Amino acid sequence: MSIGEVTALLRQGILEVLMLAAPLLVSALVVGLLVAILQATTSIQEQTLTFVPKVLAILTVLALLGGWMFTHLGEYTIQLFRQIPDMAR
């Protein structure tokens, strides 16, 4: 296995992680920003107020996109296992 193949494999793995984690992180970011704006406008400075909405947003995104995420991850894993014999050469 050459350096180029290892680099391509690492690059593909990083892209998979980013693609699967991005919807969860973006939803948590948007909800956190909205709650922070709400806290700033109402002068409510409760630190635990952001936790529950973020968890609910992440669970909602998982419920909506979880099937796609697990299918995509399964396909990627199968692709990696199919590449193992080529890596041993």
Question: How would you briefly describe this protein structure?
Answer:
The chain is mostly helical and 89 residues long. The protein contains 2 helices and no strands.
Biggest sheet architecture: none
Please count the beta strands (DSSP E, at least 2 residues each). Answer: 0
Give the SSE string: HH
Q: Give the terminus-to-terminus CA distance.
A: 7 Å
From the alpha-carbon coordinates, what is the Rg to the nearest angstrom? 19 Å
Uncertain stretches of 5 or more adjacent residues: none
Estimated structural class? mainly alpha
Keywords:
89 residues; mainly alpha; 2 helices
Question: How is this structure best described in words?
Answer:
With 89 residues, the chain is an all-alpha fold. The chain is built from 2 helices and no strands. It has helices at 3-42, 51-87. Helix 1 (3-42) runs antiparallel to helix 2 (51-87). The protein starts with a helix and ends with a helix.
Topology:
Elements: H1 3-42, H2 51-87
Helix pairs in contact: 1-2
